[in-house]
Amino acid sequence: MYIKMRKNRMNKITGAENTQPQNCSNKTWTKSFALAVICVIMLGVVSLFTGVYDIKVQEDGLQMFFITRVPRTAALMLTGAAMSMAGLVTQLITQNRMVEPTTTGTIEWAGLGLVFVYLAIPAPTLMQRMAGAILFSFIGTMIFFLFLRKVKLRSSLIVPIIGMMLGAVISSISTFIGLRFQMTQNIQTWFVGSFAPVQIGRYEYLWLIVIINIIIFFYADRLTLAGLGEDVATSLGVNYNKIVILGTGLISAAVGIVAAVIGNLPFLGLIVPNIVSMYRGDDLKSNLPWVCVLGMGAITLCDIISRTFIMPFEVPVSLILGTVGAVIFIVILLKQRKL
Amino acid sequence: MSEIIYNNKNTGMNPGVDNRKRSAKAFRSRKEETRYWILLITLFVLGSLATYGLLVYNNPVPMGSPSFVPIVKRRLTAIIAMIIAAVCQSLATVAFQSSTNNRILTPSLLGFEALYSTIHTSAMFFFGAGVFIKFRGVGPFLFQVAIMVIMCLILYGWLLSGKYGNLQLMLLVGIIIGTGLKSVSSFMRKLLAPSEFDVLQARLFGSVNNADAEYFPVAIPIVIVTAILLLAYSKKLNVLSLGKGTSTSLGVHHKSGVIYTLVLVSVLMSISTSLVGPLTFFGFLVATMTYQAVPTYDHRYVFPMALAIGFLVLAGSYFFMYHVFRAQGVVSIIIELFGGITFLVVMLRKGTL
Fold first, then answer.
1. Most distant CA atoms of chain B, gap in Å
2. Which of B175, B181, B353 sits opposite A164 (nearest CB)?
3. B122: nearest Cα among B204, B195, B212
4. How confident is the model at residue B62 (pLDDT cuts 50, 70, 90)?
5. CA B66 → CA B60, B69, B78, B280, distances in Å?
6. Do B168 and A158 touch (CB under 8 A)?
7. Closest in A153, A161, A179 to B105, CB measured
8. Of A161, A310, A323, the CB nearest to B191
9. pTM
């Protein structure tokens, strides 16, 4: 079944190359992509005008618009892109489709990092929290990758299972420290990611994601080669270890920033890249824009639902992501089996 | 059947041994067997010592005074809950690991805890606090155990047969369903009124000390029956633990055997979860220690040792944490922490998965 899929992909890719041999990245800008971009822009506009406070009637409406609505929508777009790209790069490096920051324990490591920062510094700034989260998620992801290289696996499905058990161990350590030093509440609020507190002055670090995205874009071809495995990558002239470390650094930077500013957003990095590569194959460079746009669209849609569901109040977006994401994840899993 | 296998193993190990010295028993030598029994008895004695300690040590009133008995009675509830938890978790984990042919994964991964909190949250969410408060006692307890077992049966039956037919796929789907259910139930909890939430929260917080003695008359017989069924099944389990190919060629219907075991496992797990709350790594810790302590693969010997170790771990750590370190409330977390660390160590030392 996998051979069949791969053949399809090969056909797709070679077919595209036949029509446009000189400029590969051009094929991203098809009609459907333009349509997707328009849809996401429309979702963004809807998100700008969703909320309890009526910005059209109140006199300080315009001010409010720029204080909360614009930052929130920008934050949504940035985190959507960050999480789905982190998922994509993780999947490439591990050569496993079922892996993403929630199923490798990266998010739990970021949480542990936050706990340690709260322990070491009484009232940490956002910058310090972010640094802790990034550092720990880097360590954790590296441990997971090293483990994957050391251990022989009989089935690719075992990887996410091990990752989630690893995550459970890490989060039990965080809970233990949290209970010992009375920080459980911090951990619990952190673990439900929500965009409600986003406003001017509280989200600006998310713009760092743009830089990460540019770097990923720049290294896209080399990351794709690394995704072919150590031997192939080395024989094609890529320093495999360097690329893996770079990729891990990028993933943990993205996850760490999102973890410190927003919180835990499950399954986003798994669903979006899987859906994209189901239709488009595995070329990272031409898929990246798609993954970005779909990630933005998915999280914006979820956030709009979370804001309108119980209107004067709102539900944390991670709960909606977790519910919907679990269902889609299972569908993807079973569909892959059926092929 | 199992005897044949162990016999073969024996000949493989000592090719020079003549026929008279060959044994068809579960143990390789008499010495190992004696060591097993000594260890088992020691563990049981230590376990009963810890029980005795938990019951009477540091009792504020002297023995013989009229208020002595109620205090012991109150502590006895916790002990019974510990016994039930130990039986459920250790037997379920060992049986699960054997029937799924691995020593890393545990049945607590399959989302029992999430299902438990979802059942209670939806009872509150859809029917309100009035019905929810009445949603206790024997009937609802059985109802919720039944729902958990039925869900597992559907999951196993669906994913282990037909075109999917894959154990790892089933596990992964189970975990994902657990994560999804956790989101659903915390989503519903967000929509509850604060007063309703408080009532619910009190119910969801299960622990050994919080166990409801009201359920014992129902839970204990079910646990005993299931445990006996599992013990009676140990010879088949010996074969099942060899994997699908080997067990089929030895004449055991692999799929139905696995489903039968998993149903028993889910009964044990759901009772343990609804009585004392979630324990993720406790079962793993016990099973791993058991494999170290028992020099055989025969489940007739593995199960009793798992029971003894499971109870000793629970009772011992409660005794030490309560009366030696005076750190109440963190016991289960410490057990979980140790279990988690053991998990990491075992995983890294093992070459393949």
1. 76
2. B175
3. B204
4. low
5. 12, 7, 21, 40
6. yes
7. A161
8. A310
9. 0.74
List of chain A residues whose C-beta atoms are within 8 Å of the C-beta of residue B343: 165, 169
What is each CA distance from A233 to A17, A82, A241, B288, in whole angstroms? 21, 25, 10, 39
* Angle in degrees, CA B58, B61, B64, rounded to 5: 115
User: How many whole angstroms separate alpha carbon A64 and alpha carbon A107?
Assistant: 32
Give the residue, A115 or A7, on which the prediction is more confident: A115
Burial class (CB in 10 A: 0-12, 13-18, 19+), A48: middle
User: Which of A107, A152, A165, A318 best tests the B interface by mutation, with the highest count of B CBs <10 A?
Assistant: A165
B186:A192 CB<8 A = yes
Query: Average pLDDT in the A170-184 region?
Result: 76
ipTM: 0.72
| Predicted local distance difference test score (pLDDT) of residue A251 | 85
Which of B163, B344, B351 is nearest residue A151 as measured by Cβ atoms?
B351
Would you call A168 and B347 a contact, using CB atoms and an 8 Å cutoff?
no
Give pLDDT tens digits for A49-73.
Answer: 777 666 666 667 677 777 777 888 8
- Check CB contact under 8 Å for B353 and A329: no
Indicate the angle between helix axes A31-48 and A70-94, nearest 10 degrees: 140
* Burial class of residue B15, CB neighbours in 10 A (0-12, 13-18, 19+): exposed
Percent of the residues in chain A that have a pLDDT greater than 90, as a whole number: 0
CA dihedral A135, A141, A145, A147 (to 10 degrees): 90
User: Over chain B, what HEC string results?
Assistant: CHHHHHHHHHHHHCCCCCHHHCCCCCCCCHHHHHHHHHHHHHHHHHHHHHHHHHHHCCCCCCCCCCCHHHHHHHHHHHHHHHHHHHHHHHHHHHHHHHHCCCCCCCHHHHCHHHHHHHHHHHHHHHHHHHHHHHCCCHHHHHHHHHHHHHHHHHHHHHHHCCCCCCHHHHHHHHHHHHHHHHHHHHHHHHHCCHHHHHHHHHHHCCCHHHCCHHHHHHHHHHHHHHHHHHHHCHHHHHHHCCCHHHHHHCCCCHHHHHHHHHHHHHHHHHHHHHHHCCCCCHHHHHHHHHHHHCCCCCHHHHHHHHHHHHHHHHHHHHHHHHHHCCCCCCHHHHHHHHHHHHHHHHHHHCCEC
Please tell me which residue, B132 or B14, carries the higher pLDDT value.
B132
